[in-house]
């Protein structure tokens, strides 16, 4: 009997060693038509593990599933591999909310805030809402990788640099990591809850998406999960869950510091430019880079050349905007400065919002005709303008809005009397 039990133990141990590999990942999608969508799965795995997944099963949330082949695998330093499973196309049966998911055993060994992580499945999910009144939707794209490093007793910052190609409003929220059958992992804790002898904070900014951990105490690997929700006309139209891994080690260097940057706006057709600089308290080598929506647009993308300097570095952000860049929500740019000669590379992060607004109508004229006033103007040249709002006020008002103040102030005394739903 003992020999039989010992054999079972060996088999279970061998299975765990074979299966340990999943570090991080997410599922994203692009609309092909109202009901047809293309999905991409990205995972990050432990390179030395003999476990390998040339294909993954994706569950569509409508009772069906499909095996998706891996289309790319890249091995990075520090035992990290990036796997891409793309080209999965699915037609959904009709309108509704669908939760698309992937479950795979197992996570890598030794994650401090997931008990017995080597035997806990890795689970990620994404929501797609098909609503004919809101139109087809593309999920957010996460431009920064979900593998990062931090330092003991040092402020940790990270931003996933999410970009929504549709210009929808997005928000961020921490959620528990999930395991078998998509359930929250029993015993899961946020990274700052692992060691309660010292009070630290761990949070995500709901608007910018910047993750702040002040300050890590224990060395080791941690996994967190958060969702990026999309909103259109006040209705949630989907979310993407990212499960990411943070490795905390001991170090004695200090993070660079990025100079202050203000949110701004620009009128479509104008050029925007400003300098971003960073200093390193240790006078070490610093590299500064940027990610965000302005670099991802098809027409006239922004430019911010990565720059390296000793103790100080700067680069210039430039964007020659066009009418195609106009959208209701501002674009977000994430600037990151890292000290490149240390490990881990400590970073400072600044997020900047840039709003691209439509140029106003020109050559407005008003002609009194009896008890009426006839208005005429030259139409806005931007095709993305969809109409005009007309306001009226009795008496003079010195309205002199700044370049980042489109529209009419609420306290100006103007009343909206009409909306013209064309630009002719």
The H-and-E topology, N to C, reads as HEEEEEEEEEEEEEEEEEEEEEEEEEEEEE
The helix fraction, in percent, is under 10%
- State the end-to-end distance: 88 Å
Q: Which percent range describes the beta-strand content?
A: over 45%
List the helices and strands and how they pair.
Blueprint: H1 2-19, E1 22-31, E2 36-46, E3 55-59, E4 65-69, E5 72-76, E6 80-91, E7 96-104, E8 122-130, E9 141-142, E10 147-151, E11 156-158, E12 162-163, E13 169-175, E14 201-204, E15 211-214, E16 220-232, E17 235-249, E18 257-258, E19 264-267, E20 271-279, E21 285-292, E22 307-310, E23 312-320, E24 331-339, E25 347-357, E26 362-369, E27 372-378, E28 388-392, E29 415-420
Parallel strand pairs: 10-17, 19-25
Antiparallel strand pairs: 1-2, 2-6, 3-4, 5-6, 7-8, 8-17, 9-12, 11-15, 13-16, 14-15, 16-17, 18-20, 20-23, 21-22, 21-24, 24-25, 26-27, 28-29
What does this molecule look like?
This protein has 424 residues and is mainly beta. The chain is 4% helix and 48% strand. The chain is built from one helix and 29 strands. The protein has one helix at 2-19; strands at residues 22-31, 36-46, 55-59, 65-69, 72-76, 80-91, 96-104, 122-130, 141-142, 147-151, 156-158, 162-163, 169-175, 201-204, 211-214, 220-232, 235-249, 257-258, 264-267, 271-279, 285-292, 307-310, 312-320, 331-339, 347-357, 362-369, 372-378, 388-392, 415-420. The strands form nine sheets. Strands 7, 8, 10, 13, 16 and 17 form a six-stranded mixed β-sheet that branches. A five-stranded mixed β-sheet has the order 19-25-24-21-22, with no helix packed on it. Strands 1-2-6-5 form a four-stranded antiparallel β-sheet, with no helix packed on it. A hairpin with a 2-residue loop joins strand 16 (220-232) and strand 17 (235-249). Mean pLDDT is 90; it is low at 1-19.
């Amino acid at each position: 009997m003992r020999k039989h039990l010992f054999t079972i133990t060996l088999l279970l141990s061998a299975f765990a060693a074979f299966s340990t590999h999943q570090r991080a990942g997410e599922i994203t999608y692009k609309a092909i038509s109202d009901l047809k969508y293309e999905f991409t799965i990205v995972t990050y795995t432990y390179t030395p593990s003999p476990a390998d997944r040339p294909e993954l099963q994706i569950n569509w949330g409508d009772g069906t599933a499909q095996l998706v082949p891996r289309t790319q695998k890249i091995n990075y330093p520090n035992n990290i591999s990036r796997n891409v499973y793309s080209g999965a196309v699915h037609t959904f049966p009709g309108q509704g909310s669908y939760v698309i998911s992937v479950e795979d055993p197992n996570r890598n060994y030794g994650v401090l805030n997931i008990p017995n992580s080597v035997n806990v499945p890795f689970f990620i999910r994404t929501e797609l809402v098909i609503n004919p009144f809101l139109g087809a939707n593309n999920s957010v794209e996460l431009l920064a990788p979900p593998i990062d490093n931090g330092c003991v007793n040092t402020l940790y910052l990270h931003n996933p640099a999410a970009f929504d190609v549709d210009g929808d409003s997005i928000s961020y929220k921490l959620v528990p990591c999930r395991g078998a059958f998509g359930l929250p992992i029993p015993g899961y804790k946020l990274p700052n809850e692992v060691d309660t002898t010292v009070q630290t904070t761990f949070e995500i900014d709901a608007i910018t998406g910047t993750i702040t951990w002040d300050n890590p105490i224990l060395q080791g690997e941690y996994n967190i999960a958060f969702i990026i929700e999309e909103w259109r006309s006040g209705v949630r139209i989907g979310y993407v869950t990212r499960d990411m891994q943070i490795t905390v080690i001991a170090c004695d260097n200090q993070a660079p510091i990025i100079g202050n940057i203000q949110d701004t706006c620009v009128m479509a057709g104008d050029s925007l430019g400003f300098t971003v600089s960073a200093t390193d308290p240790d006078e070490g080598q610093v590299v500064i880079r940027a990610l965000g929506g302005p670099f991802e647009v098809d027409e006239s993308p922004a430019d911010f050349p990565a720059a390296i300097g000793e103790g100080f570095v700067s680069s210039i952000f430039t964007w020659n905007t066009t009418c195609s860049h106009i959208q209701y929500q501002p674009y977000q740019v994430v600037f990151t400065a890292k000290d490149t000669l240390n490990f881990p590379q400590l970073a400072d992060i600044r997020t900047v919002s840039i709003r691209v607004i439509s140029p106003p109508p020109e050559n407005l004229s008003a002609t009194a005709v009896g008890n009426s006033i006839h208005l005429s103007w030259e139409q806005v040249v931007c095709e993305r303008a969809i109409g005009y709002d007309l306001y009226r006020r009795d008496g003079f008002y010195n309205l002199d809005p700044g370049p980042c103040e489109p529209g009419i102030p609420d306290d100006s005394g103007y009343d909206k009397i009409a909306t013209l739903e064309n630009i002719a």
